[in-house]
Design a protein that fits this description.
There is one protein chain. 7% of the residues lie in helices and 31% in strands. It is built from two helices and 16 strands. The strands form three sheets. Strands 1, 4, 11, 12, 13, 14, 15 and 16 form an eight-stranded antiparallel sheet that branches. A six-stranded antiparallel β-barrel has the order 5-6-7-10-9-8. One of its GO terms (molecular function) is serine-type endopeptidase activity.
Length: 266
């Protein structure tokens, strides 16, 4: 069982950003190759620029995890992406991760809330909410994604996006945001792939024959089905491997917790 953390460092900010502690961080292009070879999105394609305007890059001097904008001041991601909030910068409106395109907004993090039942070993309740110091400016490049009104149905086609590695046999992180479509799998199919490891807070999506998936570097990013955020990239066995689909935090099952945090701390 491996969470989809990114160990390949690619950053594209070239900006000075004032954080809440009034320190300045200068983020420069960084490229290292100290990652396992099963990162990705695998089997996808370059997203149409800014077609996923809720997509977030959580940056700690390099791209570390993905996330999703759910309103103008809150980000949702995976709990296993947690870092000290003062070391994290949230980037919205990005597409080419090495180029400042003028569409990006660089946001400091005020507070992080992860589920009190989060289990770092099983990755149950793998969810966190990040409150930004200031609201983003919503525009054609930056828009929140709707939270689910109901749970997804097996067979629903969904979009996963991220800047994770695009190969399973070598390390190469893409410069541009990648997309891949995957179907929601049934609970029976999910449990069959991961006996005894799937909880009510998890949902599987992908192809049992393999070939398309999300993985390290895509952690925390969105699984969007019919215009709603139904999943958060969480974990899996390898990447795009036959009989091992991606496992996502099941957002619909955690809506009471999400609503409670938003109402208590907004």
């Amino acid at each position: 069982m491996f969470p989809f953390l990114c160990l390949v460092s690619i950053s594209s900010v070239l900006a000075q950003i004032s954080v809440q502690s009034h320190c300045l961080f200068i983020y420069l292009f960084i490229f290292t190759t100290a990652a396992p070879v099963d990162d990705k999105i695998v089997g996808g394609y370059e997203c149409s620029p800014h077609s996923q305007p809720w997509q977030v890059s959580i940056n700690i001097g390099y791209h570390d995890c993905g996330g999703s904008l759910i309103n103008d001041q809150w980000i949702i991601s995976a709990a296993h992406c947690w870092q000290n909030p003062y070391s994290q910068i949230v980037i919205v409106g990005d597409h080419h991760i090495w180029v400042n395109e003028g569409t990006e907004q660089f946001m400091s993090v005020d507070a992080i809330y992860w589920h009190e039942s989060y289990d770092y070993q099983t990755l149950d309740y793998d969810i966190m909410l990040m409150k930004l110091v200031h609201p983003v400016t919503v525009n054609q490049y930056v828009k929140p994604i709707a939270l689910p009104k109901a749970c997804p149905t097996p067979g629903d086609m969904c979009m996963v996006s991220g800047w994770g590695n695009i190969y399973t046999d070598q390390v190469f992180n893409p410069f541009n945001l990648q997309c891949v479509e995957v179907p929601i799998l049934s609970d029976k199919e999910c449990e069959g792939s991961y006996p005894g490891q799937i909880t009510d807070r998890m949902v599987c999506a992908g192809y049992l024959e393999g070939g398309k998936d999300a993985c390290q570097g895509d952690s925390g990013g969105p699984l969007v089905c019919n215009g709603e955020l139904q999943g958060i990239v969480s974990w899996g066995q390898g990447c795009a491997q036959p009989n091992y689909p991606g496992v996502y935090t099941k957002v619909c099952s955690l809506m009471p917790w999400i609503n409670d945090i938003l109402s208590s701390y907004s």
